Amino acid sequence: MTFILGLTGSIGMGKSATAAMFRARGIPVHDADATVHRLYAGPAVAAVEAAFPGVSVDGVIDRAKLGRQVFGNAEAMRTLETIVHPLVHAAEQEFLAAARAKGANLAVLDIPLLYETGGERRCRAVAVVSAPARIQRERVMARPGMDEERFAVILARQVPDVEKRRRAHFIIDSSKGLDFAQSQVDAIIAALSSTA
């Protein structure tokens, strides 16, 4: 039986780097964000363009144009989620079926908005990647195109870090360097591989 671990963390916490650490240890990881990118280049294009005219360019969703229509607009975001979430969930199920077929003891679902979308119900445990707010802010504000207003809107959509940590089975501290984070990942793999 494959143990399903949810991996999440607020913006700028280091979740993507942590997911790569699981992958480097041979653990299959399903990346919800990467799945959305694939969908925006194929299966979801027609439906998203129909809901938000003008956001596709040469058969691919232009994320910047889409962002201008949905960012900060709760109703538009809900419309987009009703299109995209079922497709992401279907891709996730295919990933898990493949992991089980290969006999994987552990599989990771990397889902940025895991708690916000109820994704924890599909996992046997959840690992939250976290760092102090000061470090999070430094990381996020260093990103191209980021400003205080955009950061505030993103944070408002996310369950607060303190609540994520409270609900987590495992907390991975990403503020003390890659080696420290890797050691925490390895400890989780060891613990869960023995319970699968």
UniProtKB/TrEMBL annotation:
A GO cellular component annotation in the UniProt record: cytoplasm
Hey, what's the signal peptide range on this chain?
Answer: none
Q: Which InterPro entries match?
A: Depp_CoAkinase (IPR001977), P-loop_NTPase (IPR027417)
Q: Which GO terms describe its molecular function?
A: ATP binding; dephospho-CoA kinase activity
What are the BP-aspect GO terms? Answer: coenzyme A biosynthetic process
Family note:
Belongs to the CoaE family.
What the protein does comes down to:
Catalyzes the phosphorylation of the 3'-hydroxyl group of dephosphocoenzyme A to form coenzyme A.
Q: What is this protein called?
A: Dephospho-CoA kinase
The scientific name of the source species is Labrys okinawensis
At the highest ranks, the source species' classification is: Bacteria, Pseudomonadati, Pseudomonadota, Alphaproteobacteria, Hyphomicrobiales
